[in-house]
Amino acid sequence: MGIGDKIGNKTQESIGKAKEGIGEATGNERLEAEGAKDQAVARAKQAGEHVKDAAKDITGH
Where do the H-state alpha helices sit in the chain? Predict the structure, then answer.
């Protein structure tokens, strides 16, 4: 996983957490759900990158 990908995924996850928190605090269910979705997408991307990294470690490519 490239450093740019890591930073992008963590940024997306952090923004999602902020949206979810703001949505919860203000009673905005749409914003809360959007934040939860952003976090899930970021975590899925991170998981995919971890799988690719593990495959590289195994194959050496």
Answer: 3-26, 29-59
Maximum CA pair distance of the chain? 50
CA distance 14 to 33: 14
**Encoded amino acid at 54, one letter:** A
pTM across the whole model: 0.80
How far is CA 8 from each of CA 26, 27, 42, 60, 61, rounded to the nearest angstrom? 27, 28, 8, 25, 23
Give the pLDDT of residue 29: 98
The H or E element that residue 1 is part of is none
Tokens 């809360």 appear where? 32
Distance CA 50, CA 9 (A): 12
